[in-house]
Design goal:
This protein is mostly helical. It contains one helix and no strands. The radius of gyration is 38 Å and the shape is rod-shaped.
């Protein structure tokens, strides 16, 4: 009879342990759900920032093209002034 009582106590503690584990698993699941939501939010923010960065780079490339044209015109004007000064034309 002593072994039956001992087994009952062990089963009770095992059930209690299982209940505690279930509670912990629920907490872990809620934490994982929160982390997933935060990851989605960060992903959306990064996607927006990457889109803005791409737009800024494309605007920069257009600006650089205008700069190149401007520098070519300034160089041509400088060569024209030098040609006039040295009486090449």
């Amino acid at each position: 009879m002593a072994t039956a009582a001992w087994r009952y106590e062990v089963e009770k503690t095992v059930e209690q342990r299982l209940e505690r584990l279930e509670v912990h698993v629920e907490h872990i699941q809620s934490d994982v759900t929160e982390i997933k939501a935060q990851i989605k939010e960060v992903d959306q923010r990064l996607t927006g920032k990457i889109d803005r960065l791409i737009q800024a780079v494309s605007d920069l490339n257009v600006g650089r093209a205008f700069d190149r044209v401007w520098f070519l015109l300034m160089g041509a004007a400088l060569l024209g002034i030098l040609a006039k000064a040295f009486k090449w034309i």
